[in-house]
Amino acid sequence: MTNVFDDSDGQFVAVVNTENQHSLWPTALDVPGGWTVVHGPDTRQNCVDYIENHWTDMRPASLIRESAGR
């Protein structure tokens, strides 16, 4: 059985949580609570490209806010 996250022919979405962390998610699965679709459905590669272009700071949003307040 193939892992649905590795299916290069599958349909995916890019999702983001409240900490601005991004993830690739297959459309065959329900998006987990606390995550919001920000791109797609689209190809796996296009979703990966979206994530790479939009998630440029890997720090959680709360840490970014805390650092800015210092």
UniProtKB/TrEMBL annotation:
Signal peptide: none annotated. One of its GO terms (biological process) is siderophore biosynthetic process. It comes from the Bacteria. Pfam families: MbtH. One of its GO terms (cellular component) is cytosol. SMART domains: MbtH. Residues 3-53 form the MbtH-like domain. SUPFAM superfamilies: MbtH-like. Gene3D superfamilies: Structural Genomics, Unknown Function 30-nov-00 1gh9 Mol_id (3.90.820.10). This is Conserved domain protein. It comes from Streptomyces himastatinicus ATCC 53653. The lineage of its organism: Bacteria, Bacillati, Actinomycetota, Actinomycetes, Kitasatosporales.
